[in-house]
Amino acid sequence: MAPAIEFPEPFLAFLKENNLSLDEYAFEVPLPRYIRVKPQLAAALDINAVEAELGTPLTKVDWLDGFYRLRGDVNIANSALFKRGSFYGICVSSGVAVHALDVAPDDHVLDLCCAPGMKLCYVADLQGSDGQGTVTGVDLSPDRIAVCKGLLKKYRLERARLFIADGTKFDVYAPSQVGKSAVTPSLLSSGSAIRSHESVIDDAVDLDADQVSLPTNSLSSTIHCIPSRTEAGTGAKTKPFHATRLIRNDPQLKLPSLLYDKVLVDAECTHDGSIVHLLKKAILGWSDIEQNFLNPSRLETLEGLQRGLISNGYRLLKPGGILVYSTCSFAKKQNEDIVAWFLKQHPDAQLEPIPGVDKFPLARSLVNDYPEMDLSYTIRFSPIASRTSGLFIARIRKGK
Ligand SMILES: C[S@@+](CC[C@H](N)C(=O)[O-])C[C@H]1O[C@@H](n2cnc3c(N)ncnc32)[C@H](O)[C@@H]1O
Q1: pTM value?
Q2: Which of 148, 178, 232, 243 could form a disulfide with 205 if both were Cys (CB 3.0 to 4.6 A apart)?
């Protein structure tokens, strides 16, 4: 079968340079798309009604809870149930990156490249509203994070906050206050320098994008943390771009017990495996793909960025916690090479199998040419093998 997309020369050169085959793009057209039903509404949601509204059958994905497959050319945006927030449009391969985190209701989760926010919303849905868990999203792009804020509101997600910041340098720990509960006595007793939380409450955290003048280039290397305010005795606080009411008053304490339970690093990459992205480019033009993603200096910077993101995510992870690294690139340099480099730097870190992996329709792993380590627990989804968008996923456990 011929490739489903006609690629420009620099993209073909990128494939060659990375030993990637054009066959990977000879997928059925249209590739199926996927929706995820909001778990809190799943019991009450009539799937026949969704099918009737979308005008197409939905096939339950039997290897990941809550996901349905549908025809790729169906537009879900006009559906009243979608507008009401009953379901999300998200590829099931992206769902697996979140599933790999094993999110529990009390987990504090950090999502270091969160925008536009489909995975962050899934994390928040898995936490539900009974526990004390929170999700902290970080992204460099003000425009994209504004979309993320819109999703939090649309889907009524209650314990989330968003920062416009460089994920390689982000340094805010998990919230110590959720809802009415204050810092717990055990936390207070573990740090003598901690003041009463009332004295460090930030009362102006729901800053909108238009109130902050920030460059809109998401690939800029400048740090975009909103200017911090120094509090005597507690160090600088970083203002969130947005924080929901229940975690609005976090004093941003830096205690080892406030490291995150789970960290997702869905890293910036060349997007060469993201079918939606490529189909959009095929229609709108390839100019920025050539400039931003496929030139040699950009690719070198990208490798440094990916290393910086995974390293900082790990630094902010609790001992025993789980970090998931994912990209929508097929390139070994951005996937296995980053994970291999990272594991060398952190001998305490363990690559783990992703729960349920035996049921996933995976693409073949690339040849494992790292003689000193076994990367066979990393996985790859592809349009051909999985009928999904491409995604590489690695799950790493931090040593205790
Ligand atoms: C693959 S996308 C993330 C998709 C997102 N996880 C989701 O599920 O919707 C990568 C994101 O990384 C962001 N990014 C690029 N450089 C960054 C940096 N240094 N720190 C944080 N985010 C960055 C981009 O703005 C982009 O939104």
Answers
A1: 0.88
A2: 243
